[in-house]
Specification:
By secondary structure, the chain is α/β, with parallel strands linked by helices. It contains nine helices and 21 strands. The chain has a seven-stranded mixed beta sheet with strand order 8-7-6-9-10-11-12, with helices on one face. The chain has a seven-stranded mixed beta sheet with strand order 17-16-15-18-19-21-20, sandwiched between helices. Strands 1-2-3-5-4 form a five-stranded mixed β-barrel.
Length: 458
């Protein structure tokens, strides 16, 4: 049957709920339309942007009657800026929607009629919570400036004067770099033309230590007075580590080799009473306060007594493993990023933790070797990227058959799929799951899940 709508058609729709990813869901005689910028309860006019056999996509052109949970967004750049999606949805409604999305993923993808889902943990602070921001340079008539990509645009950057997700320090530093770039008459890189010089600015803040790391990314060549830039950055007492990277490829990346312009190689952050060294390319959860809550739930689910061998897979800089090491016999971590593993090893030393070891490698390939070296684990913690456990990593994990798996996930849809495979192929049952909102005003939601083996592998 043909779809009942066509591209560019204007529709009047009522938004029922938010789908995972942030679009409103409406139905037109049963046919599903995903509506960008539609919030629950809204009556909207929307233009169809894409039509598929089973559903269509549309963009709100006018809110005819606002839903009862709409609020005023405080940020002057909202909704043009691509950083936040829901500043105009009451926070209670945001967390309720995220909780429902996790439940829906377990039901639909995980095949669990009644998932053992516990109430979502809301964020402590709904603004100013990020400890890392990556800005892009763009060229305006009066010179280069800094901001974020416009919502839905990879090719256009919006100048930002005040971002509500960072701190006063973060805003002041970014604006100072903007004025410096103008004063130096430098030119922003143009992605389409692949010309120009200034590309990105990355700012990381140890929120519990007050230490900041700054990384400037340019095209190839030293076209600025580094001493002057160092002097400017040293004007901010928080800045402890100043790096410069050159990127001569068209790819918009910041994960690059860095040259230390001034200060320490790394900064420190404190989480759960432990100190962590953070280098420019190492992974650190971007909401420090909620990372502590997330790790607290992972510790509770791991239920260690001091006798256990624990694996920390996708360990990053060792934050989860070192948190657990205090209550375990041994901890063994794997991460593909050598820079993160170098930090994890330093972090063990920094905290006088001697029962944790970390190795660089791809989990799918390195897990077997680790198993040979460490023996059977009692608890395996996994914290993979959004794609979840890749086929080989999941198979190896299932074959190792640890009694208990604690799965920390940033994507409920891949979590639910992995839970289903661990149940169907390896006899694991989902016992508990707790969503955590680390990223207010965005569609992202974390979830910690506890799985235990109820039967021998099939
Ligand atoms: C979501 S982060 C979790 C890091 C850490 N557990 C934390 O809480 O800070 C995912 C980590 O997986 C690592 N990673 C991605 N793919 C991997 C793979 N195939 N094998 C091992 N590590 C991988 C990344 O380098 C990153 O540090």
């Amino acid at each position: 049957m043909a779809a009942p709508v066509r591209r560019d058609q204007e529709l009047e729709l009522t938004i029922d709920r938010l789908a995972y990813g942030g679009n409103g869901v409406a139905r037109l005689n049963g046919f599903v339309v995903f509506v960008r910028r539609g919030l629950p309860g809204d009556r909207v006019r929307a233009r169809v942007t894409k039509v598929q056999r089973r559903h269509a996509e549309a963009l709100v052109t006018e809110v005819l009657e606002p839903g009862s949970q709409r609020v005023d967004a405080p940020c002057a750049h909202y909704p043009a800026c691509g950083g936040c999606r829901f500043q105009d949805l009451a926070y209670d409604a945001q967390v309720a929607a995220k909780h429902d999305q996790v439940a829906d993923a377990f039901q639909r993808i995980g095949g669990l009629a009644a998932p053992p889902l516990e109430p979502i943990v809301p964020a402590d602070d709904v603004f100013h919570y990020r400890n890392k921001l990556e800005y892009s340079f763009t060229q305006l008539e009066d010179g280069p400036t800094l901001g974020f990509h416009k919502a839905g645009r990879w090719d256009e950057v919006l100048e930002v004067e005040k971002c509500w997700l960072t701190t006063d320090f973060g805003n002041a530093l970014r604006n100072a770099v903007r004025e410096w770039a103008k004063g130096e008459r430098l030119v922003a890189y143009d992605q389409a033309e692949q010309t120009g010089y200034l590309r990105h600015l990355v700012v990381r803040e140890g929120r519990n230590t007050g230490q900041a790391l700054v990384q400037l990314v340019t095209a190839r060549g030293e076209k600025f007075d580094t001493a002057h830039f160092v002097e400017l950055m040293r004007g901010f007492p928080e800045v402890r580590s100043l790096h410069w990277s050159e990127n001569d490829s068209p790819a918009e990346v910041t994960n690059l080799p860095t040259k230390l312009l001034w200060g320490e190689e790394a900064i420190e952050e404190e989480l759960g009473g432990l100190r962590f060294r953070v280098r420019p390319n190492a992974f650190l959860q971007t909401n420090t306060a909620m990372a502590e809550r997330l790790y607290g739930i992972a510790s509770e689910f791991a239920a260690l007594t001091g006798e256990e061998t624990v694996y920390d897979l996708y360990c990053g800089i060792g934050t989860i493993g070192l948190t657990l090491a205090r209550s375990a016999l041994t901890v063994w971590g794997i991460d593909v990023s050598e820079e993160s593993v170098a930090c994890a090893l330093e972090n063990a030393d920094l905290n006088d933790i001697t029962n944790a070891a970390f190795f660089a490698g791809n989990v799918g390939q390195a897990l077997e070797e680790l198993h040979g070296r460490s023996g059977d684990p009692d608890v395996v913690v996994v914290d993979p990227p959004r794609a979840g456990l890749a086929g080989k990593a999941l198979r190896r994990l299932g074959e190792i058959a640890a009694p208990r798996i604690v799965y920390v996930s940033c994507n409920p849809t891949t979590l639910a799929g992995d839970v289903k495979r661990l149940r169907d192929d390896y006899g694991y049952e989902l016992l508990r799951a707790r969503p955590v909102d680390m990223f207010p005003h965005t569609p992202h939601v974390e979830c910690v899940a506890l799985l235990e083996r109820s039967q021998a592998p099939v």
